[in-house]
Amino acid sequence: MALIIAGERSGVGKTTVTLTLLASLRRRDRLVQSFKVGPDYIDPMFHRHVTGRPCRNLDPVLTSEAYVQECFARHSQLSEYALVEGVMGLFDGIGHEEWGMGHGQEKQKTDFASTAHIARLLDLPVVLVIDCSRLSGSVAAIAHGYRSFDPQIKIAGVVLNRVGSDRHLSLLKDSLEPLQLPILGVLRRQDNITIPDRHLGLVPTAELPELNALIDRLADLGDTCFDWQHLLPLLKSEPLSHPHHPHHPPSSPVRIAIARDRAFNFYYQDNLDLLQQLGAELVFWSPLEDVDIPKDVQGMYFGGGFPEVFAQQLAENTRVRDAVKTAIIKGMPTIAECGGLMYLCEQIIDFQGKSWPMAGVLPTSAAMGGRLTLGYRRAVALQDNLLVKANTTVYGHEFHRSHLTLTPTQPLFETSRYDCEENMGCEGWGLPANVHASYVHLHWGESREIPQQFLQECLKVASSGTWI
């Protein structure tokens, strides 16, 4: 058993409600495992900051339905309580064609990858968060509609968010009473509880010096705003008496430099776990703060993040930029996703049009703009590259406001939208051959061959000593 926190639409306060629950549970010294539906990186950072445990992404597009079930079962059983934060509105998924059971076996659209889809996959009850700031009696129609829309979804109750006054709350309760749907929480309008955001969503945890004070205020709120008598049994998971941690003996000593700081921090924890399970030692370092790349490493991994926000500081660290370029030119296998790709470019052009020199590995520049590129991608490899063989299909996600001024002459992938055949063009840099630089974020949970191939290449180069 566990709970899914869902919203009736985006922006109703799912993350605030989730963090409030997590903060209050941790204040009670409860061991709690959190999950996030979808490809999100930033919300899981907040979860981890509160719980002290990595948040796990549940995404059947990037992985599979079976992986979502296995991931949830494995990690929820290692804690006392489990909580899943949904994505968008409860039934907001992506177009996904599958054969229907009607006459003619027609194709039909589903709510694939929605919060409702995950609730059905895991057979978990849902708490519906409703933004009450601009309604009163209509709350019953919303709650009734969501409860009756899909009989397979079990709505355990509602959380009323942004309630304005006692009179407002009274009207909401009177409206909901005929439904006999439990009100599991009431959050008043909180002007002093605000998480700042910017062009790609919330500002990450590493950039918020007042975050602990904010979490304390959320814990205070959580202690009083929820019906804990009803919530705690729903949140309870079944911990294993003797958790089994599979042992994966290292095949050989491989050290991978993982760029992790305020500029680069978008990583799926499962990807990092897989590298370790396959025998790699992860060496975390900062292209912002360190004076050199880590010593005695055989590969580098630059995740996504906000290099455009810290472009000046990255540019001023010329010793690290030069070291990164030198290592790659000499053959260091390197993965660079999104923000990492931007760092390997000749320069980043920020929102004000100012240019900042970067590592200069790729003969192009990353220019920031107002257009948001967002969505799941089906990507077919056009050539053998550092991570996959030619003609291999992978599924990933793009989320960025930058574009490259020059496109690669020999791109890694031909991409299309996941939910239709719309071609999204070719992208990704694989020259030099030891680099995989792409805007497409990949989750390796159902593709262990990707980190395996990466580590094999690291071993080859390390044994040759060509880059040292």
TrEMBL record:
Domain notes: Comprises of two domains. The C-terminal domain contains the binding site for glutamine and catalyzes the hydrolysis of this substrate to glutamate and ammonia. The N-terminal domain is anticipated to bind ATP and cobyrinate and catalyzes the ultimate synthesis of the diamide product. The ammonia produced via the glutaminase domain is probably translocated to the adjacent domain via a molecular tunnel, where it reacts with an activated intermediate.
Organism of this sequence: Nostoc edaphicum CCNP1411
Cofactor: Mg(2+)
Pfam families: CbiA, GATase_3
Lineage: Bacteria, Bacillati, Cyanobacteriota, Cyanophyceae, Nostocales
Name of the protein this chain belongs to: Cobyrinate a,c-diamide synthase
Record-linked Gene3D superfamilies: 3.40.50.880, P-loop containing nucleotide triphosphate hydrolases
UniProt site (Increases nucleophilicity of active site Cys): 441
UniProt KW keywords: ATP-binding, Cobalamin biosynthesis, Glutamine amidotransferase, Ligase, Magnesium, Nucleotide-binding
